[in-house]
Write a structure and sequence with these properties.
heterodimer; A: mainly alpha; two-stranded antiparallel ribbon; 5 helices; B: mainly alpha
């Protein structure tokens, strides 16, 4: 199965957002953001779209398969 | 209420419950123990409602689901084997302590299986079961 990676950490740093801030915006715990950033957890489509909305990016610009 | 405050309050409620239950056991008062547990559970439920932070999200539910499946896969066969171990050697002595223990274990295993099947059926229906 293809691994899904993301650039949330970079986007977050560009916007000076903490993991806590992002977690609050997308209504999840900080642990979930940490797991997503490390590609240890693949978010649901709903959560992925919420993250995209926060960064104002398309889903393929944030999540990629390798 | 913030998540930090919620964690502190939760510890205090747990301490209250532990202390009251220990006192109830030492004075042999079942009602006191039951009411302490009840008050504790209601308090945690009410406080949880006022917490603004997210306590449960999709990853936690995902982990809980996987853990529940592992717990079920281990518990049910273990109970079934235990019930057989207790029942088979005591078939001739029906009503004995070990035989009854075996029957209790088998009923617990069946009860677990029934709950799992009902929950599985419910979620399969909810997420669109293929009726072919």
């Amino acid at each position: 199965m293809a691994e899904i990676i993301n650039n949330i950490k970079i986007l977050r740093a560009e916007r000076s957002l903490t993991q806590e801030d992002l977690a609050d915006k997308v209504e999840v715990t900080r642990q979930t953001i940490i797991a997503i950033e490390k590609s240890k957890y693949v978010p649901s489509l709903e959560l992925a779209f919420k993250i995209c909305k926060v960064f104002d990016k398309k889903i393929e610009e944030i999540f990629k398969t390798i | 209420m913030s998540y930090k405050n919620y964690k502190i309050v939760r510890i205090f409620i747990a301490m209250f419950m532990a202390m009251t239950v220990s006192i109830a056991i030492s004075v042999e008062n079942v009602l006191l123990a039951v009411s302490a547990i009840g008050i504790g559970m209601i308090s945690i439920f009410l406080i949880k409602k006022n917490v603004k932070a997210v306590l449960v999200d999709e990853m936690i539910k995902n982990i809980a689901g996987k853990s529940a499946l592992i717990a079920y896969s281990i518990t049910v066969p273990a109970l079934a084997v235990l019930s057989l171990v207790f029942m088979f050697p005591n078939f001739n002595s029906e009503g004995s302590y070990l035989y009854n223990l075996g029957i209790i274990f088998s009923y617990i295993a069946l009860f677990n299986m029934a709950i799992y099947s009902l929950a599985y059926y419910y979620y399969q229906k909810k997420y669109g079961r293929d009726n072919k």
